[in-house]
Design brief:
Layout: E1 12-18, E2 30-37, H1 43-53, E3 57-60, E4 66-67, E5 71-79, E6 84-89, E7 93-99, H2 104-113, H3 132-135, E8 138-139, E9 142-143, E10 148-155, E11 160-165, H4 177-180, E12 185-195, H5 205-210, H6 219-233, E13 241-245, E14 251-253, H7 254-263, E15 269-271, E16 276-279, H8 281-287, E17 294-295, E18 298-300, E19 307-310, H9 316-334, E20 343-344
Parallel strand pairs: 2-5, 3-5, 4-20
Antiparallel strand pairs: 1-2, 6-7, 7-12, 8-9, 10-11, 10-12, 13-19, 14-16, 15-16, 17-18, 18-19
């Protein structure tokens, strides 16, 4: 009996799949079993097999925000659902549906090509669209949560597809409902709502300096500026393994901030919620002397202390060992705890 015309082929299964090219740290990892998920409809059968075998599992997108062990036991779902389309458009906003496996930066470029500005501050962030809301990615004064309409996902707890509104997602700084419930949801599509009214957001220090004397750049100019700034500050994962910013910027009460400022007059910080201040983690790490330092096969990037790098043959254990040294020294010096941003699988 022939399959229905719109029924996708079953997800391709590959045993012992090497993942060195599927994580931006360039860690030499192997998935015990890997399923290539190219359509949402493939997920129920795969999850049913996982349940039957009582296997551990995880989803892997672009591998830009993960630290992989040498062997990933059980099942790894490779998120490869692609495609984007404009769902609706009125005088106020345009709604776009995007597959979870679409490359994030390529999607941002696509929005500008289609005269849909708004996401340009988030250019050149590595990873996939499906992973972006889990971490609530943000850069240069913009967070992805600002533009999300809803999210479609498979809920492994109920074995059903669901749609979550922006409010359901409980977005916060580098946080979301998905992050609070790991190993539950598989994001298949992200629906964006891009407002028609647009204004350049260049108040963040690096952009403000870049556009000094030109207060009204176009979205394309902001996009190119962000790419230039990020390229200067952050290493290309194709050349040196990294996961971008490795630590979150810590948020402290105003009282603690004022105390630190008296001792460290150059302390770099940003306004946060009422009564709180966000400290620049990179500055804290730099003051502890880690910038450009190397520990075996891993180290701290010479141009940006917030970035840990793999010089070639580093392991997850090496990276986490260096991270622990940094966390301990920053805490001893400033009394501030640094949280690791990438997911440790």
């Amino acid at each position: 009996m022939n399959s229905a015309p719109n029924t996708p082929a079953p997800a391709k299964l590959t045993p012992h799949l090497g993942l060195k090219g599927r994580n931006t740290f360039g860690l030499d990892a192997t998935a015990e079993l890997a399923y290539d998920i190219s359509a949402p409809e493939q997920i129920p059968a795969v999850m049913g097999e996982i349940l039957t075998q009582n296997s551990v599992w995880r989803v892997l997108g672009g591998g830009s925000n993960v630290i992989l062990p040498t062997v990933l036991p059980g099942v790894t779902l490779l998120m490869n659902i692609i495609g984007q389309e404009i769902v609706s458009s009125d005088k106020n906003a345009t709604v776009i549906s995007v597959g979870g496996g679409v490359n994030w930066h390529e999607f941002v470029a696509w929005t500008l090509e289609n005269n849909l500005p708004g996401l340009e501050n988030l250019a050149l962030i590595p990873g996939t669209v499906g992973a972006a809301p889990i971490q609530n990615i943000g850069a240069y004064g913009v967070e992805i949560a600002d533009y999300i309409h809803s999210i479609e996902a498979f809920d492994s707890k109920t074995n059903a597809f669901i749609s979550l509104s922006k409010e359901d997602c409980q977005f916060a700084y580098r946080d979301s409902y998905f992050k609070k419930n790991p190993q539950r949801f598989i994001v298949t599509k992200v629906v964006f709502q891009i407002p028609k009214a647009w204004q350049a957001k260049i108040h963040y220090a690096d952009l403000a300096k870049y556009f000094e004397g030109k207060p009204t750049p176009t979205a394309e100019e902001v996009f190119l500026a962000v790419c230039k700034i990020r390229t200067h500050k952050l290493p290309d994962p194709k050349l040196i393994g990294n996961a971008g910013s490795f630590f979150q910027n810590p948020v402290v009460p105003n009282e603690q901030y004022e105390t630190l400022l008296k001792k460290y007059t150059g302390l770099v910080s940003y306004p946060d919620a009422p009564g709180k201040r966000k400290l620049a983690a990179g500055w804290l790490i730099d003051q502890c002397g880690f910038k450009g330092q190397r520990m075996g096969e891993v180290g701290v990037y010479e141009k940006q202390a917030l970035v840990l790098v793999n010089h070639g043959n580093g392991t997850a254990q090496d990276i986490l060992g260096l991270a622990k040294c940094i966390q301990d020294k920053v805490h001893n010096e400033f009394g501030v705890s640094l949280e690791i941003e990438p997911n440790i699988l």
